[in-house]
Amino acid sequence: MLASAAQAAEAGKVVFVTGQVSVAARPLALDAAVQEGDELTTGADGYVYVKTVDQGFLVLRPNSKARIVAYHIDAQNPANTRVKLELLQGVARSISGVGVKQARQNFRFNTPVAAIGVRGTDFVVYTDQQTSRVTVMSGGVVVSGFAGSCGPEGGGPCEGGASRELFAGQAGLMLQVQRGQTSPQLLRSPVMSPADQGAPARPDEPVGKVGGSSPGADVNLDAQKSNNVLNNSKQISQSNVTPGGGASVPPLVDQQPETVVPPVKPVTPPVLPPVVTRGPEEVIWGRYAAIAGGKVDAATQAKIKDGAYDLEMVLGPYNIARLKSTAYVAPREGTASFVLTGSDAVLQRAGGNWVQATVENAQLDVDFATRTFKTSLNVVGDNMRVPYSVAGNISQKGELVNPNQITDNRIKGYLGGANVEEAAYLFQYKSNLVTVNGATKWSR
């Protein structure tokens, strides 16, 4: 053990610390060296910025725990570089240093449920033991859930059919991985972003060049300005830090060199009206039968029967309908992928009772030129994982239909929206062992 400790390499130095922050149960001080193998922990008011030996950064926000598994940089032979970080809980920000950018294939950032690789990147991660969420500030990431050849013990990115990429140009999106989920979900909801998990960034948090939009976009730290920010932050003490970790400032702060981008003056955000008037939903679905402990969706049933909706279709305990006033006009060519935004499902083992289930790993792709679609998902419930997959046709009215109605996998649904930016469908799977019914809603 002593020999191992003596050989541990220095990963970086603490350039800012405030609140309760510790390493191996000892308080962590400013300018302290952080070694390979160290486990850093922050309390409810704790923030720590570690500047790595290759001029990158690892930032931990409150109530977080991270481990420096390996940080070996070989500038002469980047193939020998090995960097592996683990976020065990909480919120962390990782900004790639020079060494990582030269050997991205040898960088791994693990959470309890996912592996993250980089394309030369500045990203933020939130995790607990069940769910991880990743947002990208600059560059891109490749994310995969742990399964098969992608295990927590590996190094470098997990790249394969189950992995997904996210780049900074995809504004407002994030990747989410839940325990047992192999392929990450692409989500739009900003409410669930890492910055909103009770651990906002401080105003002085170091950042790279925000907003790179292409897969080749890279972190472009301005060394002079980053050092100025960090030197100023060293002057912050408990006497001038707002209780609770300082002001809640969004992490998307562009700190590019002032010679390129002029300073942005603070602007008071406009006050939005509490109620936004919108027209009725184009496609709606709900339960028309009480099942698996759930109730009839009375509000949806009332809408379907009020005369504004027609083309009602039924599958299992669900029904779906579209506005009468809708005129479906689709592109004549091109393809589109859709992101799952809502779902409901029930499952029944042979001879058993209906139980509530969840939908995971959902995908929907549309080919407008051939007027076809393909979709797949997993339904999880009652200790079962049931795969569902179907390919079908799109009618002139925008209906999703099976080419062959005599099948174990059935689907009924619609494409909708002014630019075909929405979709919704009901699905059913039957076998000798299990029956599954569900409903989904999608956004392009």
Characterise the protein shown here:
The protein is mostly beta strands and 444 residues long. It has helices at 2-7, 98-102, 223-234, 298-305; strands at residues 10-18, 21-23, 26-27, 33-35, 39-42, 47-52, 57-60, 65-72, 82-95, 107-110, 114-118, 122-127, 131-138, 140-145, 164-167, 174-178, 185-187, 283-287, 309-315, 318-323, 335-349, 354-367, 372-381, 384-394, 399-401, 409-416, 422-430, 434-443. The strands form 3 sheets. It has a 17-stranded mixed beta sheet that branches. The protein has an 8-stranded antiparallel β-barrel with strand order 21-22-23-24-25-26-27-28. The longest helix is centred in the middle third of the chain and has 12 residues, at 223-234. Mean pLDDT is 81; it is low at 1-6, 210-262 and 273-278.
How is this fold's topology laid out?
Elements: H1 2-7, E1 10-18, E2 21-23, E3 26-27, E4 33-35, E5 39-42, E6 47-52, E7 57-60, E8 65-72, E9 82-95, H2 98-102, E10 107-110, E11 114-118, E12 122-127, E13 131-138, E14 140-145, E15 164-167, E16 174-178, E17 185-187, H3 223-234, E18 283-287, H4 298-305, E19 309-315, E20 318-323, E21 335-349, E22 354-367, E23 372-381, E24 384-394, E25 399-401, E26 409-416, E27 422-430, E28 434-443
Parallel strand pairs: 9-10
Antiparallel strand pairs: 1-4, 1-6, 2-3, 2-5, 5-8, 6-7, 7-9, 8-9, 9-12, 10-11, 11-14, 12-13, 13-16, 14-15, 16-17, 18-20, 19-20, 21-22, 21-28, 22-23, 23-24, 24-25, 25-26, 26-27, 27-28
